């Protein structure tokens, strides 16, 4: 079986509001994207790594790789307007059959254990996505301005890697973009796939706001 990892890093990080896109911010002196790629390269299934980057950042990434002696083999692919289009570009670069994990570049703390478990479960079930139960109470805000409690036991917070049979995900991504496509599972579900959940990891945070960098730095320090 052939394994692939599409690492999507084509975003601009508008919520972070930093001058450098968040995937390049330094964690313990190294761009956080390098930790993400390293996590996949440590997987014993030896996935082929496809990195999706905005075309205007390809040469900057080359410079970073040179400056940090980063030599993990990976193919760089042009990003798209939305995450959806970036994933689609990554999928286009895969010609063979196999299992593909799609992962946010900005989740650098993903463990190799979760990556391996994702590939194994997707191989058996056709797909799988990690989720964790919310620790806060949750409410739904309605259009009329009122709100109501939801049972958090019925909810899961979805992470990446989201892992699929290549052919199934390629077929799912043939539809035009819809706003509700916030991840790969929503695209696959729209095409009729039943999504399988696996246990995610509390440390597998998505770097979105500045304070997430501080949290990530603490987790990283604890791993040393
Ligand atoms: N056109 C896009 C948009 C997002 N992503 C990637 O998808 C992941 C999750 O997206 P998000 O956290 O929203 O990143 P940004 O779009 O960069 O951030 P923001 O929404 O705050 O602008 C990130 O690794 C991001 O680089 C991508 O590959 N292509
Ligand atoms: C894919 C994702 O990380 C799953 O939680 C999430 O949907 C990405 O959302 P974003 O708004 O693009 O950060």
Please describe the structure with a list of short key phrases separated by commas or semicolons.
224 residues; alpha/beta; Spore Coat Polysaccharide Biosynthesis Protein SpsA, Chain A; eight-stranded mixed β-sheet; two-stranded antiparallel ribbon; 22% strand; globular; binds cytidine-5'-triphosphate; binds the ligand C[C@](O)(CO)[C@H](O)COP(=O)(O)O
Structure description:
- This protein is of the alpha/beta class and 224 residues long.
- It has one domain (3-129, 158-223): Spore Coat Polysaccharide Biosynthesis Protein SpsA, Chain A (Alpha-Beta Complex).
- 32% of the residues lie in helices and 22% in strands.
- The chain is built from seven helices and twelve strands.
- Strands 1, 4, 5, 6, 7, 10, 11 and 12 form an eight-stranded mixed β-sheet that branches.
- The two termini are 33 Å apart.
- The mean pLDDT is 97.
- It binds cytidine-5'-triphosphate (CTP) and the ligand C[C@](O)(CO)[C@H](O)COP(=O)(O)O.
- Cytidine-5'-triphosphate (CTP) is lined by residues 8-16, 23, 52, 79-83, 86, 104-106, 206, 208.
- The ligand C[C@](O)(CO)[C@H](O)COP(=O)(O)O binds at residues 83, 104, 158-160, 182-183, 206.
């Amino acid at each position: 079986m052939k394994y692939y990892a599409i690492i999507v890093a084509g975003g601009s990080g508008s919520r972070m509001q930093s001058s450098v896109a968040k995937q390049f911010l330094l964690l313990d002196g190294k761009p956080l994207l390098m930790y993400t790629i390293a996590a996949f390269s440590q997987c014993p299934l030896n996935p082929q790594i496809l990195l999706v980057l905005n075309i205007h950042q390809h040469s900057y990434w080359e410079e970073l790789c040179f400056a940090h002696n980063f030599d993990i083999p990976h193919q760089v692919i042009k990003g798209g307007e939305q995450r959806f289009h970036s994933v689609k570009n990554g999928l286009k670069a895969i010609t063979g059959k196999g299992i593909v994990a799609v992962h946010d570049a900005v989740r650098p703390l993903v463990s190799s254990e979760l990556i391996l478990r994702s590939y194994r479960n997707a191989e058996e079930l056709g797909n799988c996505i990690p989720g964790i139960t919310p620790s806060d109470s949750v409410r739904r805000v309605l259009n009329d301005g009122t709100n109501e409690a939801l049972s958090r036991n019925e909810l899961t917070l979805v992470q990446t890697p989201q892992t699929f049979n290549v052919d199934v995900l390629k077929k799912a991504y043939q539809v035009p973009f819809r706003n509700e496509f916030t991840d790969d599972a929503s695209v696959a579900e729209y095409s009729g796939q039943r999504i399988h959940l696996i246990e995610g990891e509390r440390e597998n945070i998505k770097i979105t706001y500045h304070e997430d960098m501080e949290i990530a730095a603490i987790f990283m320090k604890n791993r040393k």
